[in-house]
Specification:
With 559 residues, the chain is of the alpha/beta class. It is 30% helix and 25% strand. The structure holds (2R,3S,4R,5S)-2-(hydroxymethyl)piperidine-3,4,5-triol.
């Protein structure tokens, strides 16, 4: 046989394998950095070339030392997480100017690999919760070189000004050094997936810097990139200075632009040495009323709140997204927040969320909406509870509600992330009103109700106030993937689901063709455990408190 014929035969044999690898994304696996991709307004984080769902948890603020890590890994494991969000503070990597110490990052990355976790690095630099707490002392107390903001009355604010050129240069230098170090130790294995630049920026109590440099910039024309994206909520000049264009919104908008521009410089320089996805997180303003009113000391001015996302997009193109830190437990607010931060130009990712049990149901909603990651805050057995923002517990009882949900997504996370990218997924969390909700899908609609018994209808009950035990507080949640025209994957807990025809199928008689309970394995293969029929399907699909995965097919029959 000639070598040509051999190679043709080999390539014919290998062709299906190559195609399968390409379809699964494996072909791109070698050496590809994590990156975010978009498709028709939905997103995925690609890790090793394939969509990856971050089942994440953030450690407590002060757990960024080797001695604190064992309690972090233990909690993350119980949470069935695959990603740890961990702060790295400027004060710890550059305690003396120009002398860098990356030993914590070395330990963190090594232990993450040992624990089979990925990492998101949270950069506590110029601003942490708007303040200077994590600055090295040589920055913190030298306010000539590293100035703070000046308020309207000429008083010095607690927070550093985004017009501090030396502060920016020093923060950027430290950040770049950190990114260089991460590249050096991690570019091959890519344990670090992305980096948050600064933490909950903005300023409380002061709308913007009124110092001379800031004031001069405020009186300049609004940059064209901002004008092109951020529309004035009230009619103003088409161009001109900030006040002329944005009226009562001008101070907040200007401050947002100033902080976003500062962050952009840091992110751009960091990505030039190691191009990981980068994002900012956000101390939210109330999502209501809409449209947003001008700043009135009611939130941190200048942060990437939903109403100024366009300013951040214009000023900080090296930031992939702004994510909401959700500490508002009310379901109608959570729904509004998720909607405000999910935009074609802003992948939905929840970098922080309360770790109280009531938040666990929102994981279904966020993943159903197509979030690339969700991280409850304080997934850490350090002896610290941030109640009332989060759970009172600091042990397994805090982690368990999230562990149950993450656990059911864990083996199928890559598959789910792929469906989310393809726009096939929908999410529901039980509302505080406990009312049923409808999900419109392609050709079908799901009615999702709560507090039901598994058998029978509510009208059969003698006592109409009798409810399924364990449903005293809202904790139902459901994520649906429409994987075919008539086929769905349901992941959820404590919900009743009924599906009927909608759109072209409206009014057509339908019934369950097949309702399989089972799981997807890590290779994306469905493993059936049993088929639901009879009592188990007569009153809708009643998912119990233990998260359950169903693969469901419906059929339409003739009248
Ligand atoms: C939001 C901040 O971003 C976190 O670092 C932390 O302080 C939480 N608030 C509160 O626990």
């Amino acid at each position: 046989m000639t070598s040509n014929r051999i190679s043709r035969r080999v390539s014919r044999r290998l062709a299906p394998l190559v195609l399968a690898l390409a379809a699964s994304g494996m072909a791109a696996a070698s050496g590809e950095l994590p990156r975010i991709v978009a498709k028709n307004g939905r997103h995925a984080l690609l890790v090793d070339g394939q969509p990856f769902l971050m089942l994440a948890g953030q450690a407590h603020n002060s757990s960024n030392y080797p001695g604190a890590l064992p309690k972090v890994w233990a909690a993350l494991k119980d949470a069935q997480a695959n990603t740890l969000e961990m702060p790295v503070a400027w004060e710890q990597i550059e305690p003396q100017e120009g002398k860098f110490d990356f030993s914590f990052i070395d330990t963190l990355v090594r232990q993450a690999r040992e624990n089979r976790m990925r990492l998101v690095i949270v950069w506590f630099g110029t601003w942490k919760n708007t303040g200077p707490g994590y600055l090295p002392e040589w920055v913190k107390f030298d306010n000539k070189r590293f100035p703070r903001m000046i308020d309207k009355d000429g008083k010095t604010s607690y927070s550093h000004t985004p017009f501090g050129e030396a502060t920016l240069a020093a923060d950027r230098k430290a950040f770049v050094a950190m990114m260089e170090h991460i590249r050096k130790i991690d570019a091959k294995q890519r344990t670090v997936l992305m980096v948050q630049v600064e933490n909950e920026v903005g300023t409380y109590g002061v709308a913007r810097d009124f110092g001379p440099k800031a004031q001069a910039a405020f009186e300049q024309p609004v940059p064209a990139a901002v004008l092109a994206r951020q529309k004035a909520p009230v009619p103003g000049a088409a161009q001109g200075n900030w006040r002329q264009v944005y009226g009562d919104y001008a101070d907040q908008y200007f401050h947002s632009w100033a902080i976003a521009s500062y962050i952009e410089e840091i992110a751009k320089a960091g990505r030039a040495v190691y191009d990981l996805p980068m994002f900012v997180n956000n101390a939210l303003r109330d999502p209501f009323p809409q449209p947003a009113a001008p700043w009135n000391s009611n939130f941190a001015s200048g942060g990437p709140t939903y109403d100024v996302l366009d300013i951040y997009k214009a000023a900080a193109p090296h930031i992939d997204f702004a994510g909401p830190d959700i500490y508002m437990p009310e379901s109608h607010k959570v729904t509004a927040i998720l909607q405000q931060f999910q935009r074609p130009d802003n992948p939905l990712m929840v970098p922080e969320m309360g770790n109280a049990a009531g938040y666990a149901r929102y994981v279904y909603q966020a993943f159903g909406m197509g979030a690339i990651g969700v991280a409850p805050f304080g997934i850490d057995y350090a002896n610290y509870s941030n109640y009332p923002l989060g759970s009172k517990f600091t042990d397994r009882r805090m982690v368990e509600p999230f562990g149950k949900v993450f656990g059911v997504f864990a083996p199928m996370q890559r598959q789910w992330a792929q469906w989310a990218l393809e726009g096939r997924t929908y999410g529901v969390a039980e509302g505080d009103d406990r009312a049923a909700q409808t999900v419109e899908m392609k050709g079908w609609k799901a009615t999702v109700s709560f507090r039901e018994f598994q058998f029978g209808e509510r009208q059969y009950l003698k006592d109409k106030n009798e409810y399924q035990s364990g449903t005293e507080a809202p904790n139902g949640g459901l994520a649906i993937a429409q994987v075919g025209d008539n086929e769905f994957v349901l992941v959820g807990q404590q919900v009743r689901v009924k599906i009927s025809g909608a759109g072209p199928n409206e009014g057509k008689p339908s019934m369950w063709a097949r309702v399989e309970e089972g799981r997807f394995d890590t290779g994306g293969k469905w493993v059936m455990e049993r088929n639901w029929n009879g009592d188990q399907t007569d009153y809708g699909l009643n998912l119990p408190a233990q998260p359950t995965v169903l693969k469901v097919r419906l059929g339409i029959y003739e009248h």
